[in-house]
Amino acid sequence: MNDDDMPVKIEDLITNHAPWHRQGELPPRPANGDERRHAVETWIQSRVNQCRPAAVALIAGLGQILDSIRAEIERKEGKRFVARIDETQLLKSPTAVLEKMARSWTDRSTNPPISFENIGDISDLARFRIVVNFLSDLERVASDITRAYGVDTGLSPAQRELRTGFRLVSNNLDNSVHLSPGIRIKGERCCKGVFSPTDNLLSQQKIEVQIQTQLEEAWDKKDHYLIYEPRRRGDATSTRHVAEMFAMSELLYVADLTFDRLRESIITNRLGGRQDA
Q1: How far is CA 28 from CA 24, 31, 116, in A?
Q2: How far does CA 147 lie from the centroid of its chain?
Q3: CATH number for the domain including 132?
Q4: pTM for the structure as a whole
Q5: What is the predicted pLDDT for the residue at 2?
Q6: Among 79, 88, 90, 204, which is 20 to 30 Å from 56 by CA?
Q7: Which domain holds residue 234?
Q8: Does 276 fall in a domain?
């Protein structure tokens, strides 16, 4: 895909593939390009907004699981940061939706694979992030969430409520944290899953949830600003800069591993009444 074509693709999507012809969807197609874009972005925003109630309910459901994990850890280690939910970018913007449609449209001789007809196929119209302190916290949170979608025995009330209210695609989370260098294609490290309500009327809505450590989140925010956003706009990016960002992800991964090893050693010594010299 040539990102230089993105503005052209987006204009084509808006002009020729938006549901101008369907009564009740959009007004008659304006002749002015800015007016067409405004009408389409308003239409997209209304579709994205429909995901908000389900996303808020999922945040509440996962929050109960996090509360139980936090209470258990604090009994052993005292009060410390375990997890927080970041919902500051809960809904995808209309501009980001249009850009995602355009990026997927590699063959302009065919209809766009993601368009207004199947906008619900976009898995992150709603999304939020669970940010944890240690890698072991990430693994515990991911384990307790996926356990809700395994064997239906021994589940906590919070896990059972989550399972009752939401499906999890593939009943599992994708884990890119410990991928080996040979198969890692990008620096992002997280556990990621896509949830949808079990209510048949809402089942087409999708909410993406990521679980990351603080260091992984810090890297992601910088990569988003320095590399991802310029690429999304179609700006040129230096291969050297991309390589440096990738390497920083590796360094922070080593830091996460070291912090977890230190935590385990210090807690073990504390519980055993020993102190390192």
Answers
A1: 10, 9, 16
A2: 20
A3: 3.30.460.10
A4: 0.91
A5: 47
A6: 79
A7: 3-271
A8: no
